[in-house]
């Protein structure tokens, strides 16, 4: 690819489709309150890891949305999804955005608060 009229070569796929993350297990059982606290802490500090705040905001919106809406959000923000579970993404300028698994889904050993 190179000019506006070109088409992707066979096997060239820069546009991965988002998929639901695989199940994972936290080292010890974790409550929903603890998980929410970890997520809030990550999103509060994420812009300090580098990249653009607007991209972090788009990634958060995508993570909190269903899969089809998440795809629309990352596409409109110009996010390049390197891993279909969104653990590694890039913006159009090449900045890398890494999302931990605890942001993307719930662990299999989650303890629901009463």
From TrEMBL:
Residues 15-113 form the DC-UbP/UBTD2 N-terminal domain. Residues 1-35 are annotated as: Disordered. Residues 10-25 have a biased composition (Basic and acidic residues). InterPro entries: DC-UbP/UBTD2_N, DC-UbP/UBTD2_N_sf, UBTD1/2. It comes from the Eukaryota. This is DC-UbP/UBTD2 N-terminal domain-containing protein. It comes from Platanthera zijinensis.
């Amino acid at each position: 690819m190179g000019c506006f009229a070109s088409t992707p070569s066979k096997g060239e796929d820069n546009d991965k489709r988002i998929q639901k993350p695989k199940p994972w297990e936290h080292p010890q059982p974790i409550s929903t309150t603890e998980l929410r606290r970890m997520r809030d802490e990550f999103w509060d500090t994420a812009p300090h890891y580098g990249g653009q705040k607007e991209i972090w905001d788009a990634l958060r919106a995508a993570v909190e949305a269903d899969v089809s809406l998440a795809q629309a959000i990352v596409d409109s923000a110009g996010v390049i999804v390197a891993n279909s579970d969104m653990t590694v993404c890039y913006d159009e300028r090449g900045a890398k955005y890494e999302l931990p698994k605890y942001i993307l889904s719930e662990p299999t050993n989650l303890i629901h608060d009463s």
